[in-house]
Write a structure and sequence with these properties.
alpha+beta; Nuclear Transport Factor 2, Chain: A; 6-stranded mixed beta sheet; 6 strands; 42% strand; globular
Length: 135
Amino acid sequence: MKKFLFPVIIVLIVGIFPVNMLIANYGNISQEVTQAIRRGSSRDLAHHFGSNVDLAVPGNDGTYSKTHAEIIIRNFFSDNRPDSFTINHQGSSRDGSLYVIGTYETTQNKSYRTYFLIKKVSDNYFIHQLQFELQ
């Protein structure tokens, strides 16, 4: 019985470990992105952009290079200083991506529905899509 149980335990541990690592990695980047939004730090946020990012903020909607997207986000944060950012919902999509939906409150009493999507590309995690929609 012990000879049978040992391989089963090893298979369970090896099978569960990658899933736990995936969840931990997504959790780390999600937390870092959330903190960057709370601080209004375009530089910290852009650190998690891929080479291109789908971006939608008032006045700008499209796919932008990492550098151009950082400039747009810097201007957005400059015009809409952060007061708070709360996560309302998060989960994973069918392709394994992580999405987060939250509310970004500004010091000017504006509220934005915020959405970001994180995808894994070649063992790295990047913000694939980021949206700030005035409520």
